[in-house]
Write a sequence for this structure.
């Protein structure tokens, strides 16, 4: 057994079984390399498990918060009061209102087991959810949709639009003199939600809802949301998964 030294044609001869030592060295090097690779693989696995656990925690928190928002006493109280008024003055409209209310609750409960939903599903839910507020607020709130058909199958975290529209209603004064028109469209492969700013007096926003949504998008889609507060407009851009 021999080895050629660099810069020479003469082989290096291992006397008296020196080749066995060379094999042992190679085996040791292979074992060390294997241990390093195994350690790296273990670290990667642990990182993935940690990220998965963090994602599950964020989703559980966000889902619970969304469910609370939908089932909170104020929302239910307002919806029932509106329904009673509709029953009294327009039974046909009351039936229509009840169907939308049922659709809202069904979607919220069904979305608890989903990591992502299609944009088409979110938009269908949003039409029912916003309809309830339109009736309650006297048609002072509306939404303009500008979504090309090719984006219907794009994915995003469930109840994203609910949180954003809830923010609009919670932080703005909405009256006949100050109607609210929300715009939902696509810009640079992102879902863009825009609304005029009509701030309520003495109302301070904590920003927790948007922070939670941003974390969910970061974990599930790899990107955070973008929030822009202009002089008269509030803009939120949400990443989509194709």
């Amino acid at each position: 057994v021999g080895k050629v030294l660099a810069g020479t044609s003469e082989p290096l001869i291992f006397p008296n079984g020196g080749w066995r030592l060379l094999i042992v060295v190679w085996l040791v090097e292979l074992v060390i390399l294997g241990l390093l690779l195994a350690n790296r693989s273990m670290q990667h696995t642990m990182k993935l498990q940690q990220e998965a656990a963090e994602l599950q925690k964020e989703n559980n928190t966000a889902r619970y918060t969304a469910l609370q928002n939908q089932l909170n006493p104020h929302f239910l109280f307002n919806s029932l009061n509106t329904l009673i008024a509709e029953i009294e003055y327009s039974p046909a409209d009351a039936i229509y209102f009840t169907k939308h209310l049922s659709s809202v609750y069904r979607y919220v409960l069904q979305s608890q087991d989903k990591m992502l939903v299609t944009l088409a599903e979110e938009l269908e839910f949003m039409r029912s959810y916003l309809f309830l507020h339109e009736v309650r607020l006297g048609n002072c709130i509306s939404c303009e949709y500008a979504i090309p058909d090719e984006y219907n199958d794009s994915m995003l975290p469930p109840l994203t639009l609910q949180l954003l529209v809830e923010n609009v209603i919670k932080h703005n004064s909405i009256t006949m003199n100050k109607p609210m028109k929300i715009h939902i469209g696509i810009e640079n492969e992102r879902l863009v939600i825009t609304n005029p700013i009509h701030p309520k007096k003495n109302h301070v926003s904590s920003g927790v809802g948007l922070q939670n949504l941003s974390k969910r998008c970061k974990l599930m889609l790899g990107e955070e949301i973008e929030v822009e507060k202009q002089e008269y407009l509030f803009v939120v851009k949400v990443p989509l998964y194709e």
Notes: The beta strands are 2-4, 11-13, 117-118, 141-146, 155-156, 180-187, 190-196, 226-229, 233-239. Helices lie at 18-71, 73-89, 91-110, 119-136, 160-171, 208-221. The longest strand covers residues 180-187.
